[in-house]
Sequence to fold (845 residues):
Amino acid sequence: MKNIKLSLLALLLIFPLFLSSVFAEDYTRWDLPEGAISRFGKGSVENLMFSPDGNRLIVESSIGLWIYDTHTGVELDFIGSGTSTFIGVSPDARTYISLATDGTVQVRNLTTNSVKAILKADAEDIRRISYSANRVSFSADSKMFACGVGEDIQLWSLTTGEQKATFTGHAGYVYTVAFSPDGTTLASQGYDKTLRLWNVTTATHKTTLSEYARGYGRLLFSQDSSKLISVDGSTIVLWDIETRKQQKFRADSETYHIALSPDGSTIAGGGYEGLHLWNTVDGTYIGELPGHIEGIDGIAFSPDGTTLASGGGDALFLWDVKSGARKLSIKGHTMGVSGLAFSPDGKTLATASREEIHLWAPATAEYKAGLYLADWSSNSSLAFSPDGNTLACYSYSTVLLWDVSRGTYVATLKGYGGDRLNTSWGFSEVVFSPDGQFLAGASDTSTAVHIWRLGRTHTAAFAGHTAGVTSIDLSQDSRILVSGSHDGTVRLWDVASGNQIGLFTGHTDRVYDVAFNPDASIVASGSEDNTIILWDVATDESRVIHTGYTDGVNRLAFSIDGRTLVSSGGNYEDTSRRFWELRFWDVATGDLKLIRTGHRYTVHNIVFSPDGKTLASGSWDGTVLLWDATTLSDGTVDPVQHAEDVNRDGVVDLQDLIFVASQLGQSERESDADVNADGIVNIEDILLVAAALENGSGAPSSSSHPIDLLTAAEVQDWLSHARQVSSNTPTLQKGIAMLEQLLTVLIPEKTVLLPNYPNPFNPETWIPYQLANAAEVTLRIYSATGHLVRVLKLGHQPAGIYQNRNRAAYWDGKNERGEPVASGVYFYTLSAEGITATRRMVIRK
Fold:
């Protein structure tokens, strides 16, 4: 036995130690939308909680769920929301609830992301509460879920998906709900200014603690369920439920988020004015934990009470509760991105978010530096000088200049002649001339365009618009400036003389953005009237593109070759959610070429890199996505909605096939999965979607994002039923052919052991593999010395791909006795159909 162990160790040392680090996961590339190559920023923090063992911090952000190691701050996992909406995470950190695109409210496993149950809830009810974490609460045992819906409170079973009860009595919208830890009581607060307690078992009203509670923050029970904390504006109230006695803690400003330490001795509270602590024993104020510039959006104590986590729009911190020292700062969470600019050499991408400007290396996703502004600002525009040495940004009522290499402030440019560059909500703009001779600036509350020679000396103000200027752009020869305005016009200016040399009228509402094509022969303008107009500069002729947006065209950018125009649209009131999309238009024909989706809120800025290979988009969801712009001519999207696009995401792909399969046999109600509208979801609907795959996203391949959600056995079963269908139309036959092609993709050519993820990990990891043939599968885990740590007997597995968390082998980091193993290097060996393969992994604690 000793010789066997030594031989194994020798093999392990010879081969796996040389595995490339390329297998390590880069969180900037986790769960990216189709066509995207990287993501900067993790979205703003909306809620957070610790896992029961205190080793993980789960952060609900504007783009999905981030899971961190609480000891190191390392990203362990990310579950992107895609086009679904997160509702909340259960206290045991095993389950989350989301509103899917098909209108179902899904209870999902946080580890495997598989669906555990579907709430038989009205999607519109859940959508109404999905944007406020205050309106939902889980029972301590994670078996029940309560949410405020209108004036009522609904109670749901997370096991069966059935609604258990409805609590009625509030005379106004229910804003906040909270379970007591013992599960017997539910607390609620509404716009009727009442604070109420309910009996969970009988679904009856127990008592009203206050008829004057005007606060809209969290409600929290103490661990023994005897006390309740509520917020009333700038006052935190600690209630003794039995005696109704109150203990009040005064804050200097409105408080929206609160947390109570497990021992009940400390209250943490925060809002727009920072994070504060109070002692509940003697009622004294402990002090402020400084560092949050953008306020607080989430607070949580660790289970042992030693650590406090706080998150806001700009930062995520972990604090030592006893000393008040900051233990950890987790980077990457930001408020909405409102400004974007590539440096002339393409090696730096500047992004703006409120008071901060971030500098990134787009090729490596490395964070380079941060520039911090003194005043709050939407920073709606950034511009590099042609030599790349200076960065200009619009901030509040001024234009600020920065030395890029040193990261230092240089100068402030203010408005002149009484035409002050006032603040605005996103259309103020600065542009350096390509020849570097001047800087142009405009504001949507100013009717003039301002010019500063050599970027410093104010020399001109081009006047002519009758309302605020929303956007400007310059021709490559720096001779002509184009401007768009709230007055609905587009104007051309001769820079040398300051004279207006062109006037384009045709929009029926305000113009939001203007852009020159590369040779300045065409101006594109986007308007609140939902159209893009392409203007011929020489002839004044125009062509109108009806975009399909419902709340305006927000931003425009021409590709470097001038053949493609990219647009974003809408704002928060655009309920169609099309403002999340980037739309790519053929400039010659005006046809829609491609749609890209991936952002969660308004796309506020789009810009091409200098070499034209990358497109950057910045959104109010707090992220920048980098897209591969070299494939713009490869895809086409028919703007007409196809019946086969059952999840209504604009493309027919494997997600649609999976959705139809999940609805097989449905006939009691209308369903989008019933593609041929014959009253039942059956194999013919699957074949129709399969036939349309070629028109939507191409033939299926092993790189298709949802491919590992399917199994070869499932597809083989579909084919068996498909061959029994009496109808023999060309479309159905094409569907069968596509399923046969899909089956070949799902059965790999050879058995392969893949890199585990995450790696390094703590405390758990997933080990993916592929089987060319059905086999008995066993995984053995060894220490670096060759000692057998754990055997995972996976049983008889059919041929297929076992890659996602629902199918890959799972190791919880424990040995055969259930004990967590120590940090260090480990090796895992796959045995299947006479084949063995070994790889290396690392536990870091």
Summary: The mean pLDDT is 82. The chain is about 10% helix and 40% strand.
